[in-house]
């Protein structure tokens, strides 16, 4: 998941220290690893594509979907604690 550069009311520390770890815990043993990234502006380069992003490595997409469905209310309810903007969600496969 990522949050756009102009996300309103974004609290990076909460996202990094509370929300992303909470989601990883909800994923259980299926979550092999997660990372939180902060977009950085670099002189002479285009602007970063996001303000913040979290990446979760899982072994089973089906188990990920089941955990997301099971904990959707808690996850979505927590967003108001660090952002007034919804995330952009995407899926990818490490190849």
Molecular structure report:
This protein has 95 residues and is an alpha+beta fold. The chain has one domain (2-79): 2-Layer Sandwich (Alpha-Beta Plaits), CATH 3.30.70. It is built from two helices and three strands, in the order βαββα. The chain has helices spanning 12-27, 61-79, and strands at residues 2-3, 31-38, 52-58. A three-stranded antiparallel β-sheet has the order 1-3-2, covered by helices on one side. It starts with a strand and ends in a 16-residue tail after the last helix. The model has no long low-confidence stretch (mean pLDDT 94).
Q: Return residue spans where pLDDT drops below 50 for at least 5 consecutive residues.
A: none
CATH class category name = Alpha Beta
Beta-strand fraction estimate = 15-25%
Strand order of the largest sheet: 1-3-2
- Count of helix runs: 2
| Major beta-sheet overview | 3 strands, antiparallel
In total, how many beta strands? 3
The averaged pLDDT comes out at 94
> How far apart, in Å, are the first and last alpha carbons?
19 Å
Task: Based on the coordinates given, report the CATH architecture.
Answer: 2-Layer Sandwich
Overall 3D geometry? Answer: globular
Structural class: alpha+beta
Order of helices and strands: EHEEH
Helix content: 25-40%
Q: What name does the CATH topology carry?
A: Alpha-Beta Plaits
Number of domains: 1
Radius of gyration: 14 Å
């Amino acid at each position: 998941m990522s949050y756009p550069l102009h996300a309103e009311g974004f609290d990076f520390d909460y996202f990094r220290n509370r929300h992303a770890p909470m989601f990883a815990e909800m994923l259980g043993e299926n979550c092999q690893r997660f990372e939180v990234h902060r977009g950085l502006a670099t002189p002479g380069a285009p602007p970063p594509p996001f303000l913040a992003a979290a990446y979760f490595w899982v072994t089973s997409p089906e188990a990920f979907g089941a955990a997301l469905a099971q904990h959707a209310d808690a996850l979505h309810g927590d967003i108001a604690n660090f952002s007034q903007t919804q995330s952009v969600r995407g899926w990818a496969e490490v190849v």
